[in-house]
Amino acid sequence: MNDYRELIIEAPAGAEDELTGHLFAGGAQGSWTEAAGGGRIRLHAFFDAAAAGLPALLAGLSGAPEVVRLVADALVPPCDWQAVWRSQAAPIEVGEHFLVDPREPEEADPPARPGERFLLRLPARTAFGVGSHESTRLTLELLESIPVAGRRVLDVGCGTGILAFAALRLGARQVVACDLDPAAALLLPAYQKLNGTRFAAFAGTLAALAAGGFDVALVNVLPHEIESELPRLAGLLVPGGLAVFSGIALAESARALERLAAAGLDERARRRDGDWIAFVTERAA
Prior knowledge:
The chain is an alpha/beta fold. It folds into 2 domains: 4-83, Alpha-Beta Plaits, CATH 3.30.70; 133-283, 3-Layer(aba) Sandwich (Rossmann fold). 28% of the residues lie in helices and 34% in strands. The protein is built from 9 helices and 14 strands. Strands 10-9-8-11-12-14-13 form a 7-stranded mixed sheet, sandwiched between helices. A hairpin with a 2-residue loop joins strand 2 and strand 3 (40-48). Helix 4 runs parallel beside helix 5. The longest helix is centred in the middle third of the chain and has 14 residues, at 182-195. It is globular and about 55 Å long. The chain starts with a strand and ends with a strand.
C-alpha cells in the first residue's frame, strides 16, 4: 500500500458539494467532513501521495479566496480505508420513524432490529444519501411532519432514493424520483430490490415531467443547482402542494427564501441542524 496525503480544507458549508467535486476531479480517493462552526466546514480529503494532479490542485487552493483555506497538508500511513469504514458503519436512527442501514448486505448480519421504525437498507456506494448528513436528516424529519399518505410525491436529486423510500413507507400513493447524475439512476434498481419496493426513476431534468401532477416535492440539493428550475418545480405541484427544501447552509437561508418566494413558494415551517436549515413551502392555491 502507498502512503496517503491528507489535505484539510476549511470552507463555507454551502460550498461542500462543489469543493468535494473539485477535489475528486483532482484525484481524491475519499473524504469526510466535520463542522467548523460559524457556518463553515472542515473537509478532509485523501490522495495517493504520488498523485500527478496534486501539485496543480495545491497551487489552485493556495490561490483561492480567503473563504476557502488550506488548513493542513500531511502524509498518512497506508490504511485500508474501506475496511475502517465498514468496521464503524452502523444503522442510523433518523427522525421518529426511520432506521437507515448503510452497510453492505453481507455486513448486515445479524440484521438490524428496527422495532417500530421503518428499516431502509441503503449501502453507502457512490450516490448521496444514507441519512448521516444533516440535510438528509432534516428532509426526513420535515417529511414526517407533513401529510404524505395517499399523495403523489416527487424526489428531486434523489441520490440513493432515501427520500423516495421514506415517502413510500409513510404511505405515499406514488413516487417519482429524478437525478441529473446517471450513476444514481443506475444504482436505484439495486436499492429497490434490497428494500422490496419499486418507484419510477430517471436521470434527467424536471422538463420531462407534466405540470401540476404532484402533491409533495422533496428537494435536497444545493440552492444554486436548483435556482433556475424553481418556477418549473412550483408548476409541477398542485395548488396548495408542499415542497421540502434542504441542502441549505444557514448563512444562505435568507437568500434561499427570497428565491423560493419569487417562484411562488411560501414558507410554512423550518427546521435547523447545526449550520444547515430546511424549509417546508407551499404553492399558492
